[in-house]
Amino acid sequence: MAHVGIIMGSTSDWETMRHAADVLDALGVAHETRVVSAHRTPQRLYDYATAAADRGIRVIIAGAGGAAHLPGMAASMTHLPVLGVPVESKALKGMDSLLSIVQMPGGVPVGTLAIGKAGATNAGLFAASILALADPALAERLKAWRQAQTDSVADAPQ
Ligand code: RP5
């Protein structure tokens, strides 16, 4: 059963959002991926967000670009933690996406990550950290992943 739901506004977001999926794969966290557009498929968004918790999803990662209303609208319809990834847009380099996601009204939180690949990667890690609070084996895998990252940093440039 998937514990993390990765949703994105368009198939064009997958190039960014796959980095969240990659890190969840590396950590052995079951996840699902869906294209859910706040503007083009609002009924799909409603159905996904309202059913997610009952289906066993524990964290939602939502990525979108431009007028990026997907994370906020998903958060408005579920008590699950929602992590928002601003996808880099062509016109405004993702600043539009970032500002659309980050300035939520008090009472409806979205945990907003960085624009683009780093944000997607960190959303995956953040979701794993949340799940690791109740999963000691996952916590160990997460610590090992972080240690491997530390060990991979060179002392000096080649
Ligand atoms: C947003 O519009 C999507 O999240 C995507 O980042 C952006 C462009 O979508 P496409 O025109 O590539 O489908 O809804």
TrEMBL record:
Q: Which InterPro entries match?
A: PurE_ClassI, PurE_dom, PurE_prokaryotes
Keyword Isomerase: yes or no? Answer: yes
The record ties this protein, via Gene3D superfamilies, to: 3.40.50.1970
EC nos: 5.4.99.18
What Gene Ontology molecular function terms does this protein carry?
A: 5-(carboxyamino)imidazole ribonucleotide mutase activity; lyase activity
Chemical reaction(s) catalysed: 5-carboxyamino-1-(5-phospho-D-ribosyl)imidazole + H(+) = 5-amino-1-(5-phospho-D-ribosyl)imidazole-4-carboxylate
Report the top EC class in one word: isomerase
**Pathway note:** Purine metabolism; IMP biosynthesis via de novo pathway; 5-amino-1-(5-phospho-D-ribosyl)imidazole-4-carboxylate from 5-amino-1-(5-phospho-D-ribosyl)imidazole (N5-CAIR route): step 2/2
Annotated coiled-coil segments of the chain: none
Q: Which UniProt keywords apply?
A: Isomerase, Lyase, Purine biosynthesis
Q: Which GO terms describe its biological process?
A: 'de novo' IMP biosynthetic process
Which residues make up the binding site for substrate?
S10, D13, R40
Ranges for domain PurE come to 2-153
Source taxon at top rank: Bacteria
Pfam families assigned to the protein according to its UniProt record, in alphabetical order = AIRC
Q: Which NCBIfam families does the entry link to? A: purE (TIGR01162)
Give the family, as the similarity comment puts it: Belongs to the AIR carboxylase family. Class I subfamily.
Cross-referenced PANTHER family:
PHOSPHORIBOSYLAMINOIMIDAZOLE CARBOXYLASE, PHOSPHORIBOSYLAMINOIMIDAZOLE CARBOXYLASE CATALYTIC SUBUNIT
Functionally, this protein is described as follows:
Catalyzes the conversion of N5-carboxyaminoimidazole ribonucleotide (N5-CAIR) to 4-carboxy-5-aminoimidazole ribonucleotide (CAIR).
What is the name of this protein? N5-carboxyaminoimidazole ribonucleotide mutase
Species annotation:
Sphingomonas lycopersici
Write the lineage as a comma-separated list. Bacteria, Pseudomonadati, Pseudomonadota, Alphaproteobacteria, Sphingomonadales
Q: Which gene encodes it?
A: purE
